[in-house]
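Holo prediction. Input below; ligand is adenosine-5'-triphosphate.
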Amino acid sequence: MEDIVLETMGLKKDFISPSGDTINVLKGIDFTVKKGDTISVVGASGSGKTTFLHIIGLLDKPSEGIIKYFGKTLEGTKDIEIADFRNKNIGFIFQMHYLLPEFNALENAMMPLIIRGAEFKDAEEKAKDLFDKVNLSHRLYHKPGQLSGGEQQKVSLIRAFIGEPKIILADEPTGNLDKKNANLIAELFLKLNDMTKTSIVMVTHNEELAKMMSRICKLDDGVLLNI
Ligand SMILES: Nc1ncnc2c1ncn2[C@@H]1O[C@H](COP(=O)(O)OP(=O)(O)OP(=O)(O)O)[C@@H](O)[C@H]1O
Ligand SMILES: [Mg+2]
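Structure of the complex:
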């Protein structure tokens, strides 16, 4: 029981379309993530994968249903406390990297620890160790614009893992990369997962990558199927 990180029950999400119709994107999702799980989420474009990640990542609220982290609902929790919980426990990786262009790779990677008030030296040491693990130590001082797409995504990966979150939510993290780099990033995910036991939920269109995770879930007509 204590190794359940995240649990959703009957999660629903409706949007109102510009023409005023209600779109039932998520129609009741029960989903459990345990410590160390690696899960891929697949599904057609528009099936609600990003919506689902945003909701379980506490960036958006469900229309109905329950989300529990570590066995507790966050119902009634103040937004500022939710933001704090998110910063400490959830790491995000998006298709587009969102690195800050004016900071170098090392500074970008250290950012979550600096925001949290860590000592600069400690954050730097930790980041450098992770650059080493993903073979990127030769690019510490490059700005994002001076890095390749694959290198940028490695920096995003370090930035997501550096704060030792309990879960990482990744939305097509390899979508912009060629096959070789996509595989490399997926392998690094698994390597870091193995080292840290951080759970991973990864949305991907890439079947090969989906199969590398220990469980594949498919969003289909608003429900999540185990496949
Ligand atoms: N804020 C919003 N208002 C209205 N409709 C929305 C809103 N956000 C998403 N939608 C609709 O909800 C559906 C699911 O969108 P979502 O972005 O979750 O899909 P997705 O599975 O991530 O697709 P893709 O694979 O193309 O990224 C889409 O039909 C989209 O148009
Ligand atoms: Mg999406």
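The mean pLDDT is 93. That is the main takeaway for now.
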